[in-house]
Amino acid sequence: MTCRVRALILWALLGIAVSASGQTADAKVRVDSAWARRAPMLAMGGAKTGSGTGAIYAAIVNAGSDPDALLAAASDAAMAVEIHETYQDSGMMKMRPVTKIEIPAGKTVEMKPGGYHIMLLNLTRDLKAGETVELTLVFQKAGRIPVTAQVK
Amino acid sequence: MGTVWNRRLAVLLPLFAFSLAAGAAETADLKSGVFKPPRPAPDFSLRGSDGAELTLSRYRGKVVALGFGYTSCPDVCPTTLFYLAQVREKLGAAAKGLQVVYVTVDPERDDTERLKKYLASFDPTFIGATGSPGQLAEVRKAYGIQISRQTVPGTQSAYLVHHSSFVYLIDRAGNIRALLPFGVSVDDIAHDVKALLSG
Fold it and tell me: For chain B: N or C, fewer Cβ within 10 A?
């Protein structure tokens, strides 16, 4: 299965999940202090499409009494957006994609350098300090939450 | 914290005698991991992102911060480079005595042009280095840097290069003096660079 097909299926499933749960009127989950690390779009072998990677960090606050989970992220600043985690193993800093980040009830999960981050693959533009990046975070229960990240 | 790092680094760096004892350095009192006694930094000859041959000896007389990473790394590498850029800002006029040298662990994707543009987004004085896979492996071996290139399921990234993330501080005489694990604060790095510049 190609990545594109997989991505479409993922989005279709998310659409169902989100519409089924319905976005509640009073937001129990919120996203605080989102920021992106400055990063340049890089040419790759003369290709026109963007290359270069970026990362977005934020604090996800679950003020509700039900657990929630971050399932996906989307942004037009990159060709692909994934949720990743940096971890230490065998003396190296390693990275892996994660399918979701659990946000327990009443807790804050902080994405920060050296830990969870939203990874931007193949940037479509430079991320310059002082600018902003728009993204959408998709939660299991809270649905889609639009976020503006400051580039630092 | 100190003992944890000490243990971790002792595992990492069997080649080096290493001590974190406070105030143990002969000349400079450093906040990061200290090499005792200082050990000559192995020299190398790679291709610099300025297009010229890049040797460590080219920077004798400056303090060198030597790190390893790659331009497709979204989290650890940019964080380290951003911190080093902030250190240079903090040093003010003394910043001219600090040279950041960044050696790629991903020569397949990182050519000199790409390294140059990437590093310039943090600080235009940073210099990148690449070479043949064999040359780069030699340099990593000399500095105890491990890498592991892996195709990871669940990401559209073609492959990831896991790598050791610490940065060496090399003094003006070309001796390895300190080792910065990932996450050491800008203030502490600036403190140590200053100490080495005045030592």
Answer: N
Query: Tell me: the pLDDT tens digits for A50-107?
Result: 689 999 999 999 999 999 999 999 999 999 999 999 999 988 899 999 999 999 999 9
User: Considering only alpha carbons, which residue of chain B is nearest residue A99?
Assistant: B154
Q: Which two tokens stand for residue B34?
A: 């200290």
- Which domains are seen in chain A, by residue range? 3-151 (2.60.40.1890)
pLDDT per residue over B79-88, tens digit each?
999 999 999 9
Crossing angle (nearest 10°) for helices B76-91 and B186-198 = 50
Look at strands A29-36 and A143-151 and give their pairing.
parallel
Report yes or no: B170 and B64 within 8 Å, Cβ to Cβ. yes
* Residue of B70, B75, B146, B185 for testing the chain A interface, max A β-carbons within 10 Å: B75
Element holding B47 (H helix, E strand): strand B45-48
User: Rounded distance, CA B169 to CA B193, Å?
Assistant: 8
β-bridge partners, A82:
A119
The interface residues of chain B toward chain A in range 77-106, judged by CB-CB distance below 8 A, are 78-79, 82
**C-alpha–C-alpha distance, residues B56 and B46, integer Å:** 9
**Option in B11, B75, B156 nearest A114 (CB):** B75
- DSSP single-letter state for residue B42: P
Give pLDDT, residue B29.
Answer: 80
Three-state DSSP state, A11: helix
- For residue A135, give how far its alpha carbon lies from the nearest alpha carbon of chain B (Å): 17
| Predicted-complex ipTM score | 0.82
Range among A44-58, A129-143, B5-19 rated most confident = A129-143
DSSP string, B161-180: EEE---EEEE-TTSEEEEEE
